[in-house]
Structures are given as structure tokens and as C-alpha cells.
């Protein structure tokens, strides 16, 4: 009986420790990402100020954070424009993830260069995630290559992967994306798979 009680205590303590790893406060975010974050006053005197990424400007391609009265993270959203977000995470007051919209690939920027090539920038959210150093890219299951993930200098907890593809001779094509990451809350390994489909004019 004593062994069973001890085992239950170990499991319970382990779960609590795991949950604590997910708790992010506004002070932690500022300390970890100080060069990329700005304070945004909110309308409530009882809540900590919101935080937002510096970005290239104050409106597009930025992360935005809100907090509970105890300073724990309430929500994180990545905005592609000033009024539309592509990714959303919401937490309860104890730091447990309760809602997710979208995936860790939070934004894709594509620029056509001439008629026969395209340049891609992929934005990955590292909030409570540890990614591999590289991303595997293929086009129509051919031309498989790896590109590096680098830390974004303007946005908090964002890594970017950039690459170009020769699209000569293609009217329709797909780009396949694959990378691995570990969830730093529960230490589970995950594989991110995504597909981008295109039709050339």
C-alpha cells in the first residue's frame, strides 16, 4: 500500500512540474525577448500591460500577448495583418493550454522572382517548442533539400527558414515542408508536415 501511495505522489509531482514548465509570465517574456518586445498599455488598470513584437512596423507579422492579473500568459496570437491573425494559443490562469487555432507554421511569405522562380520565407512559432535546426523541403516529391532555421531578429519566439525554388516548366506544383520539434511542456516529439499548393499564371 505504501508503495502505491508513493508511486501516486511521484506521478502527481511529475505532472505538476510538467505543467509549471508551460507557465510564462509577462516578466519572463520581456527578460527572454527584451530586444524584440514592446509594451502595449491596455484598458484595464487591474491587468498587466499587453506585449507585442517590434516587427518591421506595428501592424503586420507580429506576435501579441495578453496576461491574467497574476501575470501568467493568457493568449498569444500571430497577426499577418493589423486585424487578422493566423495563429492563436490560449491558456488558463494556471498556465495550461486550453485552445489552439492554426499550427506552428504561423506564416508563409512568397515572392515571385521573374517568371521561373519563387522565394519563400516560412515563420515558425517557438513558443513552448524546440525545433530541429533544419527544415526538409521538396517540390512534387522531387528536389529534396534542407534549409536552416534561424532566429528572427524582429519577432519573439519566431524562427524563419528561407529558400528559393526554380519553377520553370510548372503550371501547378506543390511544396512539401517537414520538420521535427519537441513540446517543452510535455516533452513529446512531434513532426510538422505542411503542403503549399500553387498555380502559375
Question: What attributes does this structure have?
Answer:
201 residues; 2 helices; elongated
Summarize the structure.
The chain has helices spanning 2-20, 26-32; strands at residues 37-40, 50-53, 62-67, 73-79, 85-91, 97-101, 105-113, 117-125, 129-131, 134-139, 142-148, 150-151, 158-166, 172-183, 189-199.
What can you see in these coordinates?
With 201 residues, the protein is mainly β. A hairpin with a 5-residue loop joins strand 4 and strand 5. The longest helix has 19 residues, at 2-20. The protein has helices at 2-20, 26-32; strands at residues 37-40, 50-53, 62-67, 73-79, 85-91, 97-101, 105-113, 117-125, 129-131, 134-139, 142-148, 150-151, 158-166, 172-183, 189-199. Mean pLDDT is 85; it is low at 2-20. The protein is built from two helices and 15 strands.
Chain-wise SSE layout:
Elements: H1 2-20, H2 26-32, E1 37-40, E2 50-53, E3 62-67, E4 73-79, E5 85-91, E6 97-101, E7 105-113, E8 117-125, E9 129-131, E10 134-139, E11 142-148, E12 150-151, E13 158-166, E14 172-183, E15 189-199
Antiparallel strand pairs: 1-2, 2-3, 3-4, 4-5, 5-6, 7-8, 8-13, 9-14, 10-11, 10-14, 12-13, 14-15
In this structure, how is the largest beta sheet organized?
Answer: 6 strands, antiparallel
Radius of gyration: 20 Å
Average pLDDT number? 85
Q: What's the end-to-end separation, in Å?
A: 72 Å
Classify the beta-strand content into a percent band.
over 45%
Q: Helix fraction?
A: 10-25%
**Largest sheet, spatial ordering of strands:** 1-2-3-4-5-6
Oligomeric form: single chain
Amino acid at each position: 500500500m505504501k508503495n502505491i501511495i508513493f508511486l501516486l505522489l511521484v506521478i502527481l509531482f511529475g505532472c505538476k512540474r510538467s505543467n509549471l514548465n508551460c507557465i510564462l509570465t509577462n516578466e519572463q517574456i520581456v527578460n527572454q525577448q527584451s530586444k524584440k518586445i514592446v509594451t502595449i498599455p491596455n484598458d484595464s488598470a487591474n491587468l498587466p500591460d499587453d506585449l507585442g513584437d517590434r516587427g518591421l512596423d506595428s501592424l503586420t507579422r507580429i506576435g501579441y500577448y495578453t496576461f491574467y492579473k497574476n501575470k501568467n500568459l493568457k493568449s498569444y496570437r500571430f497577426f499577418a495583418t493589423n486585424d487578422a491573425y493566423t495563429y492563436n494559443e490560449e491558456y488558463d490562469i494556471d498556465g495550461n493550454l486550453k485552445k489552439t487555432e492554426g499550427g506552428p507554421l504561423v506564416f508563409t511569405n512568397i515572392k515571385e522572382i521573374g517568371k521561373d522562380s519563387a522565394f519563400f520565407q516560412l515563420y515558425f512559432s517557438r513558443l513552448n517548442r524546440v525545433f530541429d535546426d533544419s527544415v526538409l523541403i521538396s517540390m512534387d516529391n522531387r528536389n529534396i533539400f534542407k534549409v536552416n532555421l534561424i532566429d528572427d531578429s524582429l519577432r519573439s519566439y519566431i524562427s524563419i527558414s528561407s529558400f528559393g525554388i526554380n519553377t520553370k516548366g510548372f503550371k501547378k506544383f506543390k511544396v512539401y515542408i517537414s520538420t521535427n520539434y519537441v513540446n517543452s511542456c510535455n516533452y513529446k516529439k512531434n513532426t510538422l508536415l505542411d503542403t503549399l499548393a500553387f498555380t502559375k499564371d
